[in-house]
Design brief:
6-stranded parallel beta sheet, 6 strands, 5 helices, alpha/beta, single chain
Amino acid sequence: GYQGYTAFVECVKPLISLVILGAGNDAIPLTKIAAVLGWNITVVDGRPSYASAERFPLANKIIIAKSEQVLNNLEINEWTAFVLMTHNYNYEIAFLKELLPLQTPYIGILGPRKKLERMLDELETNGATITQRNMETIHGPVGLDIGSETSEEIALSIIAEIKAVFSARKGHSLKYKTDAIHSA
């Protein structure tokens, strides 16, 4: 005979993978907050003394590589976010050149807007194609405007922006939201 079943269906979104380019001290709080959220964390740097398990115990993966070799060591999908914070202009521009054609959903670049504009101008001058989609996914200066001063606060603003982007939200205060907070 026919038997009825009761099922509970839960949609589980894939984990966000955070790739941090740059293993300076300001990357440490970024890994800590991402780890609290259960994200998959990769730290990348060309300097072995910086990119170490001692400095980044919460990273799932540490890659020591030249900028043009980094992508060969990564699995990238629609849940991968990149944050460029090496404080090394040449390393970042070389990496960005490799990254742009992949049309990844989020690229955050630490530093002033002028630096980003200079990078993009330089890339275009040297023959790179920068699409409208690239411009939508590049976030520079990186992070939400929450008045961050310390590296921990900056990390919080970056993580919040990444979460907002992957959730297709603007990152405004909930007090101004007119409909339900959680979608049905």
